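Chapter summary example.
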Amino acid sequence: MSQALIECVPNISEGRDPAKIKLVTDVVETVEGVKLLDVDPGKATNRTVITFVGAPEAVIEAAFRVIKKAAEVIDMSKHSGEHPRFGATDVCPLVPVAGISLEECIPYAHQLGQRVGEELGIPGYFYEEAATQPERKNLATVRSGQYEGLAKKLVDPNWAPDFGPAEFVKAQTSGVTAVGVRDFLVAYNVNLNTTSTRRANAIAFDIREAGRVQREGNPLMGKKVLDADGEPVRIPGKLKSVKGIGWYIEEYGVAQISYNLTNISITPVHVAFDETCKSADSRGLRVTGSELVGLIPLQAMLDAADYFLTKQQRSLGISESEKVKIAVKSLGLDDLAPFHPEEKIIEYKMRSVNQQRLVDMDLVAFADETASESPAPGGGSISAYVGALGVSLGTMVANLSSHKRGWDDRWEGYSQWAEKGQAYKNELLRLVDEDTNAFNKIMDAFRLPKGSEAELAARKAAIETATKGAIEVPLQVMEAACASMEVMQEMANSGLQASVSDAGVGASCARTAVIGAWLNVRINAGGLEDEAFLNRVLNRGKELRAKAERLEQEILEVVEGKI
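The structure predicted for these 563 residues follows.
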């Protein structure tokens, strides 16, 4: 099971004073096990979105320190900005990232809120999945009246805070804080070629789930249509799980539509963008680009790339880095400022704070590291890398074939083969580092103490477990490299004939990867006591080697016949 990781995204009501913002963000890095991923201030909104991630207990401690410091440096009685707000730390959502569910995050949110109320005397509310009352689930409802309405709201029995004192004394300067649990939310702004807030709002009403209020006659000035309960009747917008509002951003000199995409599996970023383009066009406006506030999951960018590539009838089987470029350009994410993927994509940001992987090295550095006196990376990592190179060649042939003039009706089939190739390549690249990690675990096991009988037994068990891992990883290399040969076989048979030799080279690389990994399986198997495990692994390894050699021969016969 993966380590439990929670993302926390406090929004503080200060976006103009860098010194105050730094005082708040600095406290995050005082908590061990928490990584500060992003700090995104906005002058017009006078608001900063802070993002950090870590183990649940560490994240809760960091969030508490953020709320405490924000209350010390921000005076809400003097605050103004374009964004709705009611507290120095306006909202503090917890977001499950890995190894933990939404439901499992709720107790941590409640723990944080109770501590804020008891130790800091700051009142607040639980919202979204952490809400203790159904009517408090929606953040907009909880924040209604904003800071200016708090004096009355806090003493209203219907709005007694979930934590902290039901009085305005402390809240006069700190405001209140909403603590919640939610899915990954993407804060996303779309830029327009207009300065009109009214027109930007009209598009927002077209798109957002809440839509607009229905009116009699004139859609702008007509009397509101009411239902049987006297509530305004709403005309729903086009997209679910989307909140939106239009505003004018003085620092850019353009109007924007500010969206919160609350469930990107229901409405992805690219759908929100494309529907906005359609609505803008129908109103005589033009979308010039967009921007992300905070971070975005890598998959959202890859999905956007696939969407636009499919519209162009282009192969989806291209590299991850190329897909990110396609997404950036298609969404116009560099319209107002350069877009740096390593700073805006959460997986890349998390990767940047960890130690360098072998696959992040350039070719010379990787070769030098292999040639050094260190025993790792060794034959297992090299086998995985050779396999990755082999299927990369097969994938190249698929991509070239999908773009061949006169084969337009066949692009989708070749795209599917290229996608398969990319999947095999990514798995083999993962195994490059995994093989070295497995070797390091064996070394760690041998370093365990061996003084007492209990220590000797624990050491022996750890070595056995680590050795099994060092056998299973090269066996996975064999499985992936052998399976990847289906790409080269198909490309030799039906791909672009001018590149048929590349399919042959790819097949030979894959066979080499299988044999190399097989040697690692066998050498690591020496001394292992679990005979049932050994028999299973060795039998499977023999099958894979024989299959790879047979497939290489078949593929090379086709290649030789076409050259």
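To summarize the output: The longest helix spans residues 453-494.
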